[in-house]
């Protein structure tokens, strides 16, 4: 039987054998007390021994530095029923205990029955794989006090009674380190770890479970207390997870799962709040906050932390302490309530994400309710909310601000705004951030009551009914909200206004921004800005607050959507290449002004009405389409200096057009009016197409508007618009219209006085040939090129027609001023301006149809009988002819268009067969081919409506043609060529044509079939032997038919289509020449031919809905003179000159040379 060593015996042994260690020899021990005052005792208890003690003091006590108790596999049972203060192991005054692979158990319900207790500097207890359990009240598993140290590795700590702590370190330099330890307690008011008054606990790989009702499962209390956790997992079934009560918490890895706050940083009275440092950890709360910075000066530094909050109230992190701070990198919050709730502190988030899933669960919430600030900054953070009323980021009350950089906010739900800033001097700013909302009434940004919002390179987009891009509202008078939208920021809506303002004043500054409003996903009909009143209810009384002053200042920005003022006064300015596309509508409220600087543009897409339009840039009416037709802009006053782009379906007076209306005000400055033809075909006006209308006493100045060179079909030399043959001028008053209104008119009506000192300059051909492969540049006035921005001054009419070859000299009167003569415009009242291109097109047609037409004598040189008639009769012929001509005096039926043509043709052919007909007759048949080139010069005299001035506009035509054909000729007498003859031809020709003018150049092709039948009878009417016996008179008749087809020619603002082009020409005439024989073999004889020509065709060109024609050469007299004959044995030569004069003062001259070889 083993005997227990009593404390007295152990003390005697220690005193008498100081140099020898004491070795336990019994397996059952009572209280062990090693307190050698000399500190030289080390006791090793027998492995497997049991130490049982139920009295006062610890089951094992070791004190005095140098004394140590070592036990492996030792079972320690301390205390008993009703026992108090019976720890399992206690080290004090520097004593040490080392335990392993055993257990420490305190039993009974006594107080302070700690499992391990190290107290005093240098005191230490080490327990490896030791099971520790306590049953008493306030009985901690391991307790380091007043500088004591406890080290635990493996094993477990189990608590059974209230007020107990698994590990407790209290006092300066007190330390507990634990590794791979399990801590459990089900008692109320118990904790897994408690650090107080400068103590320190360091846990690695510890699992702690606190299941009883408790305030906090772990705590670090006091400014110098530290709790360090590494890869430690804590579960708090009731209460908070960890309190940093002015103490410091350092956590790396692991997790905290708590019913209440996962971590709270609170404070000891008068001491700043706790400091929390957590990395690579997961925090969860089912009924509180992930982290609660609940004391002034409390702070949390987080790295790669995930927080989950499942209760519908609370937040991922709450900053309620004054000057509390959150610094988080890679923080991920998933919350049923708020993400970050900041009331008095400062939060900085870098990266990470915040996801909220409940209603009214804001991602970021800053509301200053004490202290000086409540600020949140994010950098690269993603925020998502998915509940009704859940705002992505909300700042309210002065001193509250949220700053987002390179972050993303996405909300989904009714009234789930992306950003919200409310209250005096509250601020929201975003840089490089994307905000998206999906849900009805889910505004991208809501701002109210003296707030300031700054969005830089930020995108707002909304989807949902009444999901405004930005909603700025004010609930009192004389209150202003301020917005800055800069540096590439964008606002896009799908089904609501981009900018909604309600009540009060609003100041929006846009710099390099883009705002696009849509309705039903379509830009047409979207509202860019809507100003309206707001109803405010207070104390049961509802008051309507009207919108006040609304200022939209855009620079370098692009805006799409209408501006609607139902309340308030709106001013809009566009600067530095800004573009606004939309209508401006005053309805209940007033749009006071729109300013467009020299670099900016307003695209008018709907009827608009407002106060003052200051147009130094471009106001462009959007082209009519299926959604919106032509538009009207109504303003009180208009200040010009820029460009007004208007769409007009150019035709007659009834043409549809965009319109500017001056209502009761006036105009100033000069505006270039650019007219874009909207499918009009041109036409003759009576009064004109009204573009500017004055009502209610409105007026315009005489130089308020001028045509812009960018207009469709602008003719620089005349300053007119050429559309399908009609030239329109912009005229104040039109043709007997309202004096202050402005019209486009294609009809000349005299107005003003004639300047007798300014005669019309002569009309000259610009000269030169046109290369069909190199189109001519636009034709300019002979006086020099015309700058399209500075058209030449009009040429005044001296009072009658001017001979273009002989301009009249200036009229002077030595007696004094000359009274202006009465003006009769060419063509009479209502003179129509017709474009010269129509003349060039018809000039090409006439040149083409006449190019290869000829008579028998043009092709065949007359026979002169020789001394050897038989030789002269025999053989075949080859022939060639060249002809040049100039025709002038061709005029259009409409307007005053003169056409001159110059042509050159070369043809050659040869007989391919001949046959005798009777005794003397002969028949020939042959083939021929030809090449021709013609130039047409068309000059139109354009009268400038509203004045007595005119200008000459020019166009040029060019024709290059090739022909092939056959002919057949029969003579009754082959030798003398007296008697009857008949000739017929059939030809086919193709043409490459071109029209050039200052409008541009167009190429097109044409082809023609030409057939001719001719007959004549040569007689010698004078008696033989008389002086005129050798004279031959040859009456002739010829009928020619031409069928001509041409492609359309398209120039800017003009499409020319071939109209009537078939014609029948008849010729009746006679040829007179002497008949004689040549003995020498070379005889030339003269000839004279006179013809009467009649043409049945009227060449026409269809341009748009109009048809234009020339005054045809219906009847004309032609005279030809020349000589023909044989210049060698087989070579014949003929030459002639010709002249033609016909109706309408049409004239023509020409010359031809023919060479024939017979063999």
TrEMBL record:
Residues 809-824 have a biased composition (Pro residues). Residues 871-1159 form the Autotransporter domain. PROSITE patterns: AUTOTRANSPORTER (PS51208). Residues 749-829 are annotated as: Disordered. This is Autotransporter outer membrane beta-barrel domain-containing protein. It comes from the Bacteria. GO terms for cellular component: outer membrane.
């Amino acid at each position: 039987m083993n005997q227990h060593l009593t404390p007295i015996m152990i003390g005697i042994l220690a005193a008498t054998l100081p140099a020898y260690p004491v070795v336990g020899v019994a397996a059952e021990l009572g209280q062990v007390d090693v307190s050698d005052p000399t500190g030289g005792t080390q006791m090793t208890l027998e492995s497997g021994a049991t130490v049982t003690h139920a009295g006062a003091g610890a089951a094992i006590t070791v004190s005095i530095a140098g004394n140590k108790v070592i036990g492996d596999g030792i079972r320690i049972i301390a205390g008993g029923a009703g026992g108090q203060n019976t720890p399992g192991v206690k080290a004090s005054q520097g004593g040490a205990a080392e335990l392993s692979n055993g257990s420490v158990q305190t039993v009974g319900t006594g107080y302070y029955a700690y499992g391990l207790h190290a107290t005093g500097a240098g005191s230490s207890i080490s327990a490896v794989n030791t099971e520790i359990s306590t049953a008493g009240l306030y009985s901690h598993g391991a307790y380091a006090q007043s500088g004591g140290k406890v080290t635990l590795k493996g094993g477990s700590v189990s608590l059974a009674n209230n007020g107990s702590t698994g590990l407790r370190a209290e006092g300066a330099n007190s330390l507990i380190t634990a590794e791979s330890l399990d801590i459990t307690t089900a008692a109320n008011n118990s904790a897994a770890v408690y650090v107080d008054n400068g103590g320190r606990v360091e846990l690695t790989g510890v699992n702690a479970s606190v299941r009883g009702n408790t305030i906090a499962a772990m705590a670090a209390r006091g400014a110098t207390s530290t709790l360090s956790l590494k890869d430690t997992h804590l579960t708090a079934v009731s209460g908070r997870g960890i309190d940093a009560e002015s103490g410091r918490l350092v956590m790396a890895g692991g997790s905290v799962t708590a019913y209440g706050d996962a971590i709270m940083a609170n404070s000891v009275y008068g001491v700043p709040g706790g400091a929390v440092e957590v990395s690579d950890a997961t925090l969860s709360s089912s009924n509180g906050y992930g982290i609660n910075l609940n004391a002034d000066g409390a702070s949390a530094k987080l790295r790669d932390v995930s927080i989950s909050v499942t209760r519908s109230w609370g937040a991922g992190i709450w900053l309620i302490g004054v000057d509390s701070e959150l610094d988080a990198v890679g923080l991920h919050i998933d919350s049923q309530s708020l993400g970050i709730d900041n009331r008095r502190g400062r939060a900085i988030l870098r990266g990470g994400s915040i996801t909220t899933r409940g209603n009214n669960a804001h991602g970021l919430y800053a509301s200053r309710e004490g202290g000086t600030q409540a600020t949140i900054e994010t950098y690269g953070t993603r925020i998502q909310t998915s509940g009704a009323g859940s705002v992505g980021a909300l700042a309210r009350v002065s001193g509250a601000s949220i700053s987002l950089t390179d972050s993303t906010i996405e909300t989904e739900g009714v009234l789930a705004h992306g950003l919200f800033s409310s209250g005096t001097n509250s601020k929201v700013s975003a840089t490089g951030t994307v905000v998206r909302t999906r849900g009805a009434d889910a505004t991208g940004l809501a701002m109210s009551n003296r707030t300031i919002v700054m969005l830089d390179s930020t995108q707002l987009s909304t989807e949902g009914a009444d999901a405004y891009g930005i909603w700025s509202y004010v609930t009192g008078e004389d209150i202003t909200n301020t917005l800055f939208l800069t540096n590439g920021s964008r606002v896009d809506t799908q089904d609501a206004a981009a900018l909604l303002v309600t009540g009060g004043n609003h100041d929006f500054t846009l710099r390099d921004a883009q705002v696009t409003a849509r309705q039903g996903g379509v830009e047409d009909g979207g509202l860019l800005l809507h100003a309206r009143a707001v109803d405010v209810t207070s104390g049961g009384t509802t008051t309507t607050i009207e919108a006040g002053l609304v200022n939209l200042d855009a620079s370098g920005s692009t805006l799409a959507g209408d501006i609607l003022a139902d309340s308030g006064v709106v001013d809009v300015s566009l600067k530095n290449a800004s573009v606004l596309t939309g209508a401006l509508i005053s309805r209940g409220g007033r749009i006071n002004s729109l300013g467009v600087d020299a670099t900016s543009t307003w695209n008018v897409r709907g009827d608009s009405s407002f106060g003052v339009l200051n147009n130094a840039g471009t106001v462009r009416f959007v082209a009519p389409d299926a959604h919106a037709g032509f538009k009207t802009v109504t303003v009180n006053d208009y200040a010009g200096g820029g460009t007004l782009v208007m769409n007009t379906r150019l035709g007659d007076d009834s043409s549809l057009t965009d319109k500017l209306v001056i209502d009761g005000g006036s105009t100033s400055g000069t505006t270039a009016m650019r007219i874009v033809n909207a499918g009009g075909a041109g036409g003759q006006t009576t009064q004109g197409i009204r573009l500017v209308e004055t009502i209610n006493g409105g007026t315009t100045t005489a130089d308020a508007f001028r045509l812009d060179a960018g207009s469709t079909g602008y003719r620089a030399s005349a300053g007119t618009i050429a559309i399908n043959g009609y030239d329109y001028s912009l005229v104040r008053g039109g043709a007997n219209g309202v004096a202050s209104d402005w019209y486009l008119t294609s009809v000349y009506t005299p107005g003003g006085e004639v300047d007798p000192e300014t005669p019309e300059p002569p009309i000259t051909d610009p000269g030169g040939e046109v290369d069909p492969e190199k189109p001519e540049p636009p034709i300019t006035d002979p006086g020099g090129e015309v700058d399209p921005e500075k058209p030449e001054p009009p040429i005044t009419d001296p009072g009658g027609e001017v001979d273009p070859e002989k301009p009249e000299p200036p009229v002077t009167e030595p007696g004094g001023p000359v009274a202006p003569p009465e003006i009769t415009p060419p063509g009479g009242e209502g003179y129509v301006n017709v474009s010269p291109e129509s003349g060039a097109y018809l000039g090409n047609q006439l040149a083409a149809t006449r190019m290869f037409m000829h008579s028998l004598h043009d092709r065949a040189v007359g026979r002169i009988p020789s001394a050897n008639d038989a030789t002269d009769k025999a053989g075949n012929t080859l022939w060639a002819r060249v002809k040049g001509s100039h025709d002038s005096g061709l005029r259009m039926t409409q307007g005053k268009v003169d056409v001159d043509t110059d042509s050159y043709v070369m043809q050659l052919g040869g007989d391919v067969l001949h046959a005798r007909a009777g005794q003397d007759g002969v028949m020939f048949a042959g083939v021929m081919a030809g090449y021709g080139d013609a130039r047409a010069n068309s000059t139109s005299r354009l009268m400038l409506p509203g004045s007595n001035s005119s200008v000459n506009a020019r166009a040029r035509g060019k024709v290059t043609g090739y022909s092939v054909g056959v002919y057949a000729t029969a003579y009754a007498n082959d030798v003398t060529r007296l008697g009857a003859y008949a000739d017929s031809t059939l030809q086919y020709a193709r043409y490459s044509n071109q029209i050039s003018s200052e409008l541009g150049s167009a190429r097109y092709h044409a082809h023609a079939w030409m057939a001719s039948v001719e007959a004549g009878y040569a007689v010698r009417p004078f008696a033989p032997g008389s002086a005129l016996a050798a004279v031959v008179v040859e009456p002739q008749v010829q009928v020619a038919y031409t069928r001509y087809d041409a492609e359309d020619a398209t120039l800017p603002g003009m499409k020319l289509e071939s109209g009537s082009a078939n014609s029948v020409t008849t010729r009746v005439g006679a040829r007179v020449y002497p008949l004689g024989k040549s003995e020498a073999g070379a005889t030339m004889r003269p000839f004279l031919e006179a013809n009467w020509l009649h043409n049945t065709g009227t060449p026409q060109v269809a341009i748009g809905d109009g048809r234009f024609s020339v005054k045809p050469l219906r009847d004309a007299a032609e005279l030809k003179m020349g000589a023909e004959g044989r210049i060698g044995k087989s070579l014949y030569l003929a030459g002639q000159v010709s002249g033609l004069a016909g109706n309408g003062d049409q004239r023509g001259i020409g010359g031809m040379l023919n060479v024939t070889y017979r063999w």
